[in-house]
Structures are given as structure tokens and as C-alpha cells.
Write a structure and sequence with these properties.
With 296 residues, the protein is an alpha+beta fold. The protein folds into two domains: 7-68, Winged helix-like DNA-binding domain superfamily/Winged helix DNA-binding domain (Arc Repressor Mutant, subunit A); 78-282, GAF domain (Beta-Lactamase). It has eleven helices and eleven strands. Strand 1 and strand 2 form a beta hairpin. Helix 2 (26-33) packs across helix 3. The chain is elongated, with a radius of gyration of 21 Å.
């Protein structure tokens, strides 16, 4: 009997196959996750038994139909705002950069929809990517979260407190790259992109993302954001509210530009706020279609 592989390896294999729709061989799985062949074979065998993966006649493994029940349960539990894909695509086209929608939990943020547009936001982020809930992640919803959650969030970076006032005043927050590190942004983005191809380097990828966040997420004050100066701009975020009036999601755009004038900055803010309001007004997508779905 094959011994059960560690949970982390099982998760890594599922995530790897999810990003490889054409399928992967045992050797490819082993190479990309830095596993020996026997371990990769054991993991795939464990996943094949319940139908979570399927081995084709070409000996390539893909995700299997056994995951459909899991996917349906997730869709019912994690309900996206209605028309989220449409709103994100329209926003990306209007602002000319990538857009992302994330679900903000108590201790982590999970990206639930991403529209790359002409760029990527943030670099290396895709649907399902998880980030620990510490500044700047989740900033857009924090002014309206319970005091205990807000205090826990600020404990990681007390200097982030002023950004909450900016969000309350404008409905958005904006960040700039650190002045002495702007040239590192494209380098780190390229590194994250390369690490996306090697899921076995998840720990290193997380460390690079932390560094990317550290140098690209210095929040603007209210006075800076409304000034007439031309400013560098990495990304902006706004809260999205559920049907019960709770701030549950964060909508981001990522211009990643070194110089943005006041007029363009105003346009970014206006477009982001309008999209966030559309998502909030739409409410969550019903877990079941048709008039019988009811309400919460």
C-alpha cells in the first residue's frame, strides 16, 4: 500500500495541474516540484483514486471530474459579486492596466478574480493566490472592519494608520514605490514570473512577493493624493461591500507608473470607485440560478 504523501505535496500537485490544462507527465510534475519520481507517482496515485486527477492515454495527468463537487461547494461558499468578470474586464480596458478582486478574510487575502489587461496586478498574482493579511493587503476594507481585526492588521505596520484615514475620506487608497527602489520593481516582477513556472519554489516566491510589496506599497497621504504634483503610482485599492453592508472584498488596479499627473490620478480614482460601487450594488452572485435561489 502506498503511504499517504504529505499534505503540502498533494496541494502543490493539484495547483500545478490546475495551471497546466494540457496535462503533465510524472517526470514533469517531479521536475517542477523538485520531487523524486517515486514521490510524484505516489501523490498522483493518491489523487487518481478519488478522481481528482485523470491519467490520459498519453500518460499525461490532468485535473479530474472528481473535483467538480469540491468546486461546486467552493462556488456556493465563496460567492463573487454578480457580473464580476464583466466589471473587471471593463475596468481594465478603461484604466489600461491589470485589475484584481480579492476576498479579505480574518488572517489572509485570497485573489478570486484577475483581469490582466495590458499588465499584471500585482506581479505574479493569479486566482487562488493567498497573501497574509498585513499591510498593504486588505487596507481598503480595514477602516470598517471590527476594531480587533484592525488592531491586528496595524500591529504588523503601525505606520500604516494614516492610510485608513485616506480610505475613509476618498473611498480609495493609493501607493507608490519606495523612492530608492523603483528600479527594482521590474526586476522583482520578472523574478516572480519565472518562479510561477516552478511551484516547488513556493517559499522563495513568497519571499520575493514580500519584498515586492515592501518596495511598492508606501501609501500616499491625503494631502499628497490630492496635490497638483506628478507622482509615481504603483497601485490603488477600493472596498467592495456585500449585500449585508460588510466590506468583504478589495478591488485593485495596478498602473505601476513612475509619473502620474493629477488629472490622470483623478481618473484612476474615479474609475476604481465606480467599479467598486457597481460590484457592491450587484451583491453576491446567487449560488443557484433561477428565481428559487432566494436571498440571504
Amino acid at each position: 500500500m502506498v503511504a499517504s504523501p504529505p499534505t503540502e505535496r498533494v496541494v502543490a500537485v493539484v495547483e500545478l495541474l490546475a495551471a497546466a490544462p494540457r496535462g503533465l507527465s510524472v517526470s514533469e510534475v517531479a521536475a517542477r516540484l523538485d520531487l523524486n519520481r517515486s514521490t510524484a507517482t505516489a501523490v498522483l496515485a493518491a489523487l487518481e483514486a478519488p478522481g481528482w486527477v485523470l491519467r490520459g492515454p498519453d500518460r499525461l495527468y490532468t485535473l479530474g471530474a472528481g473535483l467538480l463537487a469540491v468546486a461546486d461547494a467552493v462556488r456556493a461558499r465563496v460567492r463573487l459579486p454578480a457580473a464580476a468578470a464583466e466589471v473587471l474586464a471593463e475596468l481594465a480596458a478603461r484604466v489600461g492596466c491589470g485589475v484584481a478582486l480579492s476576498l479579505v478574510g480574518v488572517d489572509q487575502l485570497v485573489f478570486v478574480a484577475v483581469e490582466p489587461g495590458p499588465g499584471r496586478v500585482p506581479a505574479g498574482i493569479g486566482v487562488g493566490t493567498r497573501l497574509p493579511l498585513r499591510p498593504p493587503a486588505g487596507a481598503a476594507v480595514m477602516p470598517w472592519r471590527p476594531a480587533a481585526e484592525r488592531a491586528a492588521w496595524l500591529a504588523h505596520a503601525p505606520e500604516s494608520a494614516p492610510v485608513l484615514d485616506t480610505i475613509r475620506a476618498h473611498g480609495v487608497a493609493a501607493w507608490r514605490p519606495r523612492r530608492d527602489s523603483a528600479e527594482l520593481l521590474p526586476v522583482l516582477r520578472d523574478v516572480v514570473g519565472l518562479l510561477d513556472e516552478h511551484p516547488g519554489r513556493a517559499e522563495l516566491r513568497a519571499r520575493v512577493l514580500d519584498q515586492l510589496a515592501a518596495i511598492s506599497a508606501h501609501a500616499y497621504t491625503d494631502a499628497e493624493l490630492t496635490s497638483d504634483r506628478t507622482l509615481p503610482l504603483s497601485h490603488l485599492a477600493a472596498p467592495v461591500w456585500d449585500s449585508r453592508g460588510r466590506p468583504t472584498h478589495e478591488l485593485q488596479i495596478g498602473p505601476l507608473r513612475s509619473a502620474v499627473g493629477p488629472s490622470e490620478r483623478h481618473d484612476y480614482i474615479t474609475e476604481l470607485r465606480a467599479a467598486a460601487q457597481r460590484l457592491s450594488a450587484a451583491g453576491p452572485t446567487p449560488s443557484r440560478p433561477g428565481p428559487a435561489s432566494g436571498s440571504d
